[in-house]
Protein 1
Amino acid sequence: MGSGLDRAMRATASRATSNGTTRAGPAKLVIVMRHELVAAGLEVLLRAGGHRVLAHLTRSDDLLRALESDRPDILLLSMIRSEAVRLISQLRADHHSIPIILMLEERDVVTAASLLELDVDGILLGAACATSLLHCVESVRNGRRWVDPDLLQCLALAEGTARPANGLTTREADVAKLVSHGLNNKQIARALHLSEGTVKMHLHNIYNKLHLRSRTELALSVAATAGPGARMN
């Protein structure tokens, strides 16, 4: 497990440097999770990544008090989606703008459309590896949204090729499809025989037409168009 943690830390540091951004530093987290052994394991991984767990709560009722006293940078929830929706809605209604990472429980049934309804900054599978956990926390800490690539791939490919979204040209739909497969701009440009500048222009147009803000939202939107069969158990 140590080598995976080392690779994760090197990768996130390299990404921040290559993007020319200033890293926000280690995160302080509060974890809401019923399973104490799993929470303890997560805390070990997060500490190895340089982060700090302020509290581990087993009851969501205790969360509001913890947010006031501990003032965490990130809230990590591990619960089924229906419970998460209720808790997140309550937090947002009470004007808590804290970044939230949702770790989906294994028994949850998830569709791309249901994930788009969640007001969260990161989404992880319950079976995610240590590297994914640290990538997610690092991204959210630095103000970026993050969705588990394995989840995106399952949603986008479950029922084959997604249908082009309304209002997109054929080329824009091609770009959107490749984004949903996890390709970056350089890889998309190579696959479609375009320049990176042209890919960026298509993405700008796609975001405007679909009223989206990020590649993550676009990938989920494309996955949602694959129909009711695009789901992960």
Note: The first helix runs from residue 2 to 18.
Protein 2
Amino acid sequence: MSTLVIADAREIYLAGLEWVLREAGHSIVADCQRAIDVPVHVERHRPDIVIVGANIADRETADLCLQVKAANSATRSIIILQPSGRFDVKQIQLLDADGLLLDGVSRHYLVECVNAVGAGEKWSDPNILQHILMPRLLRGSQQLTAREMEIARLVSQGLRNKAIARQLHLSEGTVKMHLHHVYEKLDLGGRAELALLAIGNDARSPLRNGMA
């Protein structure tokens, strides 16, 4: 089990996080209501993981994981995103977190994320995908076809174009054409961003396979 520092501005939410994590067998070595206090606790207690509820729009949030690493390079970071509005894949990449959860996360996902990050894996809440993509997918002109969704899902699992073509009995050129349409419709910069989004059902794949 992991030692944890947790931070959230909402006192009741913070208490809930602490209760769930203790019930799961983890040890809370410090808690605080200000993200700015996290690096101090990390330096003092040298926890395995920090969990911080943070608004992705705040400039301090983007630097928080770097500050945690500076305080103790072995400490891993989980961010619970508190979106004040829309956020995109580029903002998520800038966080450089080991785990990502969406505000209102279920107890199951919270514990699974902490367990995975504690084991050295990367983990991302699949609900983040829906939060990012749904505004785009609801616009009729940007709906992905069934084939495009299938290819995007295989990319998120780390498959290269040749393997996708072989699995779907398509030419590589056809796979590339479908991917080009996916990038255009979802306003993505390329394969790495698509892999980060992890279109599919594997909650651990967005970050683990992000650079496949």
Note: Residues 199-212 have pLDDT under 50 and may be disordered.
